[in-house]
Amino acid sequence: MSALLFLLLTALAYAGFAALCLSMEKHQMDLHGTARAGAGRMRQWRWFGWGLLALALLVAGQAEDWARGPVIWLGAMTAAGLSLALGVLPYRPRWLAGVAGVLAGLVVLMAIHRWLA
Question: CA-CA distance, 110 to 97, in Å (whole number)?
Answer without folding.
Answer: 20
